Amino acid sequence: MSKRIVNFSAGPAAMPEAVLEEAKHQLVNYKESGMSIMEMSHRSKEYDAVHESAIHNIKQLLSIPDNYTVMFLQGGASHQFAMLPMNFAQGKSVDVINTGSWTKKAIGELKKGYQYQVIASSEDDNFLKLPDLSSVRFNDDAAYTYMCSNNTIFGTQFKSFPTQTPTPLVADMSSDILSRELNIADFGVIFAGAQKNIGPSGVTLVIIRNALLDQCPNDIPNFFNYKTHADANSLYNTPPTFGIYMANLVFKYLLDNGGLKAQEKRNIDKAKALYEAIDSSESFYCPVPAQDRSLMNVVFRQKDHDEAFEKQFIADAKAAGFDGIKGHRSVGGLRASIYNAQTLDNIERFASFMHEFNLVTNARS
Ligand SMILES: *Cc1c(COP(=O)(O)O)cnc(C)c1O
């Protein structure tokens, strides 16, 4: 097999190698059907089994209660930014916790004719920390409370969630879904684009409390209505069948490897190894305070924000087989995304590389 590099891309991101191998094995002739799963009708019995298995497995992984519906939609997380207010914010204001670029994009959709109030924000800190939610005043008459659990670009992640919001809590979990156990009952809606922790891009996971489905208005286009997709079991139109198949291989892989409890422990160990390497480094630092640091997206910089130094580090890392560590184009710097599929072994190798780079560079100067 050709040598795979260590992929720290923020998304689409690395997948478990065992999952890719299984998909490869089944690609041309799926379970003796004589065709690939991607060539089959979405109404076929083979695809139906995949679809039902994916719903079953995600329910099991996340311990999703019976009063919730799981959907596989399209349009990415960005489509949810628009779909949520269309369904739930007519004539009501939305409470928003603003923690970075992705919440700002969601606010951008609210600006198109909806009311909203930012009830907490870390914009004054350039989003490099999280707002303290313990003192936030939630509005009793809001449509819902909106937040992003993990801020992919700034490297911050909520370690816990408000459990007493007076209105349904809606969370964008695109970059940390399946990274830890959750109490689903705390949320009205959870959504996540697949391409960070679930599978290929093109699938959006939506988990919604059933009582909310009754509130979806009839006068919006069918395709934008959650109820349409819930009633049709995500088969209103042709779903992204191959993406759902791949997502299900990832769900099974996680279930076979101890579920989310075990995955969370692996993620804690991985992040610890990388943050320790950065904190003890002579050249780099992490701008996020320890309690707010993401286990998924590790953001760091050269101590004096020396861009030539960072550029050299990116180039040398790439030559050594570590790809995707350039920070998001909007903030610069460096970022290693270490989603579920990233291994501790790879991170330890990267930490050694970082240490050697420090030694060599500092010897030169
Ligand atoms: C990647 C990402 C998005 C955007 O997802 P798309 O599927 O490209 O629309 C939204 N929110 C968060 C937190 C993300 O990480």
Describe, in plain words, how this protein is organized in 3D.
It is a single chain. The longest helix has 21 residues, at 259-279. The protein is globular. The protein is 36% helix and 16% strand. It has helices at residues 17-26, 45-61, 76-88, 101-110, 210-213, 226-231, 241-256, 259-279, 307-319, 344-364; strands at 6-7, 68-73, 93-98, 115-121, 145-148, 150-151, 156-157, 169-172, 189-193, 204-209, 284-285, 297-302, 322-323, 334-337. Helix 2 (45-61) packs across helix 7 (241-256) and helix 3 (76-88) crosses helix 4 (101-110). It has 365 residues and is an alpha/beta fold. Bound molecules: pyridoxal-5'-phosphate. Pyridoxal-5'-phosphate is lined by residues 11, 76-78, 102, 148, 152, 172, 174-175, 193, 196.
Topology (SSEs and partners):
Blueprint: E1 6-7, H1 17-26, H2 45-61, E2 68-73, H3 76-88, E3 93-98, H4 101-110, E4 115-121, E5 145-148, E6 150-151, E7 156-157, E8 169-172, E9 189-193, E10 204-209, H5 210-213, H6 226-231, H7 241-256, H8 259-279, E11 284-285, E12 297-302, H9 307-319, E13 322-323, E14 334-337, H10 344-364
Parallel strand pairs: 1-13, 3-4, 3-5, 5-8, 8-9
Antiparallel strand pairs: 2-10, 6-7, 9-10, 11-12, 12-14
The structure holds pyridoxal-5'-phosphate (PLP).
Pyridoxal-5'-phosphate (PLP) is lined by residues 11, 76-78, 102, 148, 152, 172, 174-175, 193, 196.
